[in-house]
Specification:
The protein is an alpha+beta fold. It has two domains: about 55 residues; about 150 residues, no CATH class. Helix content is about 40%, strand content about 15%. The protein contains eleven helices and eleven strands. α8 crosses α10.
C-alpha cells in the first residue's frame, strides 16, 4: 500500500464514528473510489454489510449507526417516532426500550435500502411507516442516542404518530395514557403541528385526549386556525359519540378518568 493510500485510510478510520455505517455513495464523495474500498475490504479494514454499505471491520451493526447513515449521508427524513421516540425522550418510562417494537417513519418518496431492511436488529418488531400526514422535517429534534446525534420525533410529533397508527396498529388507550404525561408542551409548537397536520382523525383525537388529560396548554391554542374538517369519524362500532369533536370512541376511552391512576 502506497504512503498516499495509507494516509487516506488513516484519515478515513479517524473520521469514521464507532459502529457507524458508511455508504459507498458518500465515501465516493469523500474521494474513496470503489477500487480503493475493495482494497480496504480485502485487507480487513472495513466490511460490507450489504450492497453499498460498510462498517469498520471491528464494529457492530447497530440501528443507531444505520440511521446515522440514512439521515446524515443519504439525507433521508427516516426517524424513530411514535412511542419509541417518547421513550427516548423520557416520556414513556414504563416501556421497556430494549424489548419493545420500534416504529420508524419516512416520507412517501423515500425507500429503505435493502442492506437496512435485511438486518436483524434484536427488537421484537421493527416497523417502517411511510406517511404524509405531517411535513417530513416538521417536529423533529436532535438528541444523542448512544454514539450518535440523531433526529427523532419531538414529543408533539411522536404522540401524533401514535394517534395516526391507532386503532389498528397502536392501542387507543395507550395513546391517551401517553398524552397524560405531556403536560409541559409549548403551545406555539403544538399550534404549528396541528395547523400543518393533514389528518382530521389525528387532530380531533389529539385535542380530545389533551382535554381529557386536563392540559393547561390546550387553552392557549388558537382553535380558529386549526382545520378539523367536516363530517363524523368513527373509531369502532358500539362506541360513544363525542359531539364536540365529532368522533365516536370506544366506551372505555369515553369513560376514562385521568384523575384515577
Amino acid at each position: 500500500m502506497s504512503i498516499r493510500t495509507q494516509r487516506k485510510l488513516n484519515h478515513l478510520l479517524q473520521i469514521w464514528p464507532k459502529n457507524a455505517v458508511f455508504l459507498a455513495s458518500y465515501l465516493r464523495q469523500l474521494g474513496y473510489s470503489n477500487q480503493l474500498l475493495a482494497r480496504y475490504k480485502k485487507s480487513n479494514w472495513i466490511r460490507s454489510v450489504g450492497r453499498g454499505a460498510y462498517t469498520r471491520q471491528e464494529d457492530s451493526m447497530t440501528l443507531e449507526g444505520s440511521l446515522y447513515a440514512l439521515q446524515v449521508q443519504a439525507g433521508l427524513s427516516t426517524h424513530q417516532g411514535g412511542k419509541h421516540a417518547l421513550s427516548l425522550l423520557g416520556k414513556a418510562h414504563y416501556i421497556e426500550l430494549n424489548r419493545q417494537r420500534v416504529d420508524l417513519f419516512g416520507a412517501p418518496h423515500e425507500q429503505l435500502p435493502a442492506w437496512f431492511k435485511n438486518q436483524e436488529w434484536g427488537f421484537k418488531r421493527l416497523n417502517y411507516f411511510i406517511s404524509s400526514f405531517l411535513p417530513p422535517e416538521l417536529g423533529l429534534e436532535t438528541i444523542e442516542v448512544k454514539e450518535f446525534h440523531l433526529k427523532i420525533s419531538s414529543a408533539v410529533r411522536a404522540i401524533m404518530e401514535c394517534i395516526y397508527l391507532a386503532p389498528d396498529r397502536q392501542d387507543l388507550m395507550e395513546c391517551l395514557q401517553l398524552m397524560q404525561g405531556l403536560n409541559n408542551m409549548r403551545p406555539k409548537v403544538v399550534q404549528e403541528m396541528l395547523e400543518n397536520c393533514k389528518s382530521v382523525k389525528v387532530k380531533r383525537l389529539f385535542l380530545y385526549f389533551a382535554e381529557k388529560a386536563g392540559h393547561d396548554w390546550l387553552n392557549r391554542l388558537n382553535m380558529e386556525k386549526i382545520d378539523l374538517g367536516l363530517g363524523k369519524r368513527s373509531l369502532g362500532k358500539g362506541g360513544v359519540f363525542i359531539p364536540k369533536y365529532k368522533i365516536t370512541v370506544p366506551p372505555e376511552i369515553a369513560s376514562y378518568d385521568s384523575e384515577v391512576l
